[in-house]
Amino acid sequence: MAEPCTVGDRVRDVRKRRGLSQRALAESSGVSLSLIKKLEQGDYGRIRLETLHKLAITLRVPTTTLAAQPDAEEPDRGDVEQWTLVRRALEGTAAGSEPAEEPTLDGLTAAFDAAVPLLVANRYAEVRAILPALLQDADALVAGSVNGTETAARRLRSQIRQVTAQLMSLTWQFDVASHAIEMAIDDASDGLTEMAAVD
After folding, report:
1. Which terminus of the chain, N or C, has fewer Cβ atoms within 10 Å?
2. Are residues 151 and 81 in the same domain?
């Protein structure tokens, strides 16, 4: 079921859950019946916080429950399509042939370090172009880690996933960003890396 997206939708939703009529809500809150009707029908402009507070007290919910706006609009379809390869690489479902050579920790660290200035300079299209390879190489590096290098490989993959999450957030792909952060936290091998992912 979709979340109520307007103030009026939220007032109506909570009012019905409380078993109140519009008239009963008006009488209990001191807000006019006509205002409540207009609000729930979407025919009322911006509502004062004081009025919302009166309604919230009667409905026994925090004022923010009624006042909160949706988190964000849907991501732009073009943005979603442009980031398809990154999402697939994050999930480990990217198509393509296996590289002829296995990635090394030093090589992947150097490639990631070269991508950071692009990120800082807001050159997202360039980062988007190399991010699938960074994600795939990080997965391969972790999978092939031996002799105590797994911790360092996971730390590096956590950092790459953090960058992925940041870029997904910038294009309003919050579900993907959240998943990337969860994966980054799972890879964090020390408190500082985990704290950076959580932040």
Report:
1. N
2. yes
Enumerate residues 6+ apart whose C-beta is below 8 A from 121: none
* Rounded-to-integer distance, Cα 26 and Cα 18, Å: 14
Tokens of 23: 């008239």
In whole angstroms, what is the distance from residue 142 CA to residue 105 CA? 9
> DSSP E strands: which ranges in 104-148?
none
What does the alpha-carbon distance between residue 134 and residue 136 come to, in Å, rounded to a whole number?
Answer: 6
Q: Which domain holds residue 36?
A: 7-67
pLDDT, residue 144, reads 85
CA 182 vs. chain centroid, Å, equals 11
Whether 149 shows a pLDDT value over 90: the answer reads no
Q: Which two tokens stand for residue 128?
A: 């988007």
- 131, 94 in Cβ contact below 8 A? no
Q: Which residue reads 């909570």 in tokens?
A: 14
Token output for 70? 């949706």
Q: What is the pLDDT of residues 81-120, one digit of tens each?
A: 888 899 899 888 766 656 667 888 999 999 999 999 998 8
Model confidence, pTM: 0.60
